[in-house]
């Protein structure tokens, strides 16, 4: 699966993933009104509003980016109806030819971990049928229960040509509470130790020069990204934290390999709620999807100017 993602990145010339993390507060009022006029102030109306919002944005950006990343919690909060919105979003994005990264951050052991893996990147058996549930191309995985929680996902990657991104150094400010702690026995930080383990797991699911086992490392910590790039040369890095969380184009340089590959950068609010930012306010609330497209184009230029143009001049 990672080879398919790389092919899409090269085709679009954009190592960018759009985070489809819909907040009701960011969905334009006319979309909310249309949904509530039909179904009232209900969970079903909330789901319909999310679907309309997502589809409008996808319609404006699918030709520019290789992938999207729906954050499942933003859908789960609306219960069964929210999961309907999640499923419809995944299916619509795939119809548009996009790679879908399910941001699910699951982490458990044994049969529970296997069930999560089968639900999101594998298949479930029912009688003689083998069925896909959510059918994402990649998903994010929490490794902090150890190999017992990750190996079932790797097995599903190999069975179904899918991929995972393992949380290693996350972009949030308090990530250092645990991830930056130095381990006495190994004289390294916890995040480095996890990175070393990811590199071992990468060998279990190679797909060309890169592995289907990738990692998550935040743009807000470029120095640590540089360390992890060395530790995990065969793993693609999913880089959150760009834009709204403070990461910039200059911060992204360490996450890429010399071949210009090795990383894909996520922006969520910075794109899907771009119409609220001063530089895109001229689009207005009705033009929210056009604002999202403009934000993607600006992000693409920022990455090109700060990562690839500099490499070409060296």
Question: How is this structure best described in words?
Answer:
With 314 residues, the chain is an alpha/beta fold. The protein has one domain (2-313): Aldolase class I (TIM Barrel). It has helices at residues 2-12, 29-39, 43-61, 73-76, 79-95, 110-121, 147-160, 176-179, 190-202, 222-231, 269-272, 288-313, and strands spanning 16-20, 67-70, 99-106, 124-126, 129-131, 138-141, 163-169, 182-183, 188-189, 206-207, 210-217, 235-239, 263-267. The chain has an eight-stranded parallel β-barrel with strand order 1-2-3-6-7-11-12-13, surrounded by seven helices. Helix 2 packs across helix 3, helix 3 packs parallel to helix 5 (79-95) and helix 3 crosses helix 12 (288-313). The two termini are 31 Å apart. The relative contact order is 0.14. The model has no long low-confidence stretch (mean pLDDT 94).
Brief overview:
The protein is α/β, with parallel strands linked by helices and 314 residues long. The chain is built from twelve helices and 13 strands.
